Structures are given as structure tokens and as C-alpha cells.
Amino acid sequence: MRRNEDTPATLDLFADDAPPLSSTEQIGPCSFVLHGFALPLIDRLLPALESILQRAPFRHMVTPGGYTMSVGLSSCGQFGWTTDRSGYQYTPTDPQTGQPWPEMPLAMRELAQAAADAAGFADFNPDACLINRYIPGAKMSLHQDKDEHSYQWPVVSVSLGIAAVFLFGGHSRSDKSQRIPLFHGDVVVWGGEDRLRFHGVMPIKQAVHPLLGEQRINFTFRKAR
Ligand code: MD6
Ligand code: FE
Questions:
Q1: What are the φ/ψ torsions at residue 181 (nearest 5 degrees)?
Q2: pLDDT value for 22
Q3: Which DSSP letter does residue 93 get?
Q4: Interior CA angle at 179 toward 178 and 182, to 5°?
Q5: pTM to 2 decimals?
Q6: Whose CA is nearest to atom 6 of ligand 1?
């Protein structure tokens, strides 16, 4: 939305400080926002997403603490990230269907690898992609991504649809967080010494995206095993 000159500024709180399309913003020693990086692949990503969701629809999982997540979750790739009362884990099958998670579409794998490369992490070969759906009001509390076997690989996170404010904290939960606006097509890559930093997503503000409607979709690519 911010990139459309015809859009009234009042519709978009970030219009004035929006970074240019296709720029890289460094947010930590080994963490980068690649603005607009996914845009050239959008025409392949959206049909890929639809076909994944036909086989593995979004569902609201329960955390070990007993809370139902406001974010809807799905996955593709060799492993899917799941949570229930017994804990977080990567599973080869969708607990809802007993079937293997849908394969990771080539367009998604290519995007993750290209983004990792652009951020200086060569040879990233993700085996898991968590797909999050946020509707207005949904949020992700501060957390670390630490269910993977090894932290030597980066995480690549793709934002589609309506905007979000990403919280990027430090190595303790109480460290002050940076607030980073993320728009349709933006990709965040982090690894190395930043791999275990706390992060989250502020409650999503009501908005309508021309392609995706009233939702934000996030892909998070990882090497789980
Ligand atoms: C989200 N993302 O942006 C949630 N994790 O919807 C994450 O939890 C996340 O964006 C690790 C690395 C990047 C992320
Ligand atoms: Fe995360």
C-alpha cells in the first residue's frame, strides 16, 4: 500500500519513513531486512500457498501453557512445526490428517535460498517452512526459535499481505526490542550470533491488502534437523 502514490497517507502510518523498494536494512550483526525481496516471486508464491492450504489448512494450536494461539498455523516441507499441551516439536506428518506435510514448493525454496545468500548465508537448504496467518488483532509473543537441532543455519522469514510491526529483541526476554515495520514482500534473515534473539509480532492493525485481503501471511524457513 505504501508504495502506491495514490494511497492517502492517512491509511498508512509508515508512509513517511518507508524504506525504498529493494534495499537492505541491517538490524543486528547478523540480521537483515531485505525490503521487497519476495515481490518478483509473488505470482508463483500465492498459488503455491493455496495448494499447501488445501492439504494442510490453517489451525489454531494450543501452547504447552494451555493458550490457544491467535495465529493460524500450517507448514510445508519435510518437517512441520507443531505445538500442543506436551510441548513444541517438528513432526514429519500433520497431526490433523496423519499425512506428510505438503512438499515445499520450488518457488518458496528458491526464495529462501536467495534471501539467505543475499544476507551472506550460503548453502541454506531449509527442510521446514512454518506458515503463519494473522488476522487483525492477532500477535506473536516474544519468543526464541530454538526447537531446531542446530543453530548454525539462519532463519528466513517472509511477510505477505497487511503490515506488521516486528519486535526484535536481545538475548534476554527483558532486553529492549526494536520495532521494525514489515510490509508485503519484505524478507527478514537472521543467523550467527543473532540466531537466538527474542522476537515477536505486535497485534496486527486492521487493514486490507489488495492481493491478500484482511490478513498477514508469514513464511518462516528453517533447517530443523
Ligand atoms: C512472524 N516470525 O513474523 C513471526 N522467527 O510472523 C517469527 O517468529 C520469526 O519472523 C524467527 C525468525 C524470523 C521470524
Ligand atoms: Fe520465531
A1: -70, 135
A2: 78
A3: B
A4: 130
A5: 0.92
A6: 218
Q: Can you state the percent helix, strand and coil of the chain, rounding each to 5?
A: 15, 35, 50
Grid cell at residue 54: 488445501
Q: How remote is the CA of residue 90 from the centroid of ligand 1, in Å?
A: 16
Q: What angle do CA 68, 69, 71 make, to 5 degrees?
A: 150
Ligand 1 neighbour 157 (Cβ under 6 A)? yes
CATH for 24-222 (2.60.120.590, 2.30.130.60, 3.40.605.10, 3.40.630.40): 2.60.120.590
Neighbours of ion ligand 2 (CB under 5 A): 145
115 pocket-lining for ligand 1 (C-beta < 6 Å):
no
Burial class (CB in 10 A: 0-12, 13-18, 19+), 223: buried
With contact defined as beta carbons under 8 Å apart, do 31 and 188 qualify? Answer: yes
What is the average pLDDT value for the chain, to the nearest integer? 93
| pLDDT tens-digit series, residues 14-69 | 555 677 777 999 999 999 999 999 999 999 999 999 999 999 999 999 999 999 99
Q: For the chain, which ranges sit under pLDDT 50?
A: 1-11, 13
The residue whose CB lies within 8 Å of the most ligand 1 atoms, and thus the one to mutate among 155, 156, 195, is 155
Which candidate, 149, 21, 184, 142, places its Cα nearest to that of 78?
Answer: 149
**Ligand 1 midpoint to CA 139 (Å):** 11
- Cβ of 220 closer than 6 Å to ligand 1, yes or no, is yes
